[in-house]
Amino acid sequence: MTANQKTLVKIDKMDRRILEHIQQDGSLTNQELAEKVGLSPSPCLRRVRALEDAGIIIKTVTILDHKKLGLSLTAIILIGMDRHTPERFAAFEEQVAEYPEVQECYLITGQDADYMLKVVVPDMDHYHHFLLNRITRIQGVSGVHSSFALRRVIDSTALPLGYLS
């Protein structure tokens, strides 16, 4: 048994169908979801609640169109830290969690960096301000490398459920 199999919560084919549908459209009513998966509303709601209670469904969100809101620039930032201590990493993570521009933050390996951030801002001027007045002011940041997305080729929040048995 792999380490991943030890942490998995068992779900059946119906649970998987429910998860597939709500990943694509979290605004489905229970009635609509029940119809799509072939259940009556009460058992469908019980299954959704059980998936929530098991921690599989963490939250339901609404995804906004970034361009229509004027948030046209997506930057991927690789960040190096001066010291690799739990305290330094915790302080960095606590600080970037306060920045609404940061959509994702990963502690990484395999690069000349410790963190990778995905940041969304209106334009290059705002990015410049964000970089100089926020990121580089975090204690311990020793290096920053920025790349900019030209186009979103795949933009999905759906998890690949085909691995579930």
UniProtKB/TrEMBL annotation:
GO biological process, one term: regulation of DNA-templated transcription
Cross-referenced Pfam families: AsnC_trans_reg, HTH_24
Ribosomal protein as UniProt keyword: no
SUPFAM superfamilies for the chain: Dimeric alpha+beta barrel (SSF54909), Winged helix' DNA-binding domain (SSF46785)
Protein name according to UniProt: AsnC family transcriptional regulator
Keywords annotated in UniProt: DNA-binding, Transcription, Transcription regulation
Matches recorded under Gene3D superfamilies: 3.30.70.920, Winged helix-like DNA-binding domain superfamily/Winged helix DNA-binding domain (1.10.10.10)
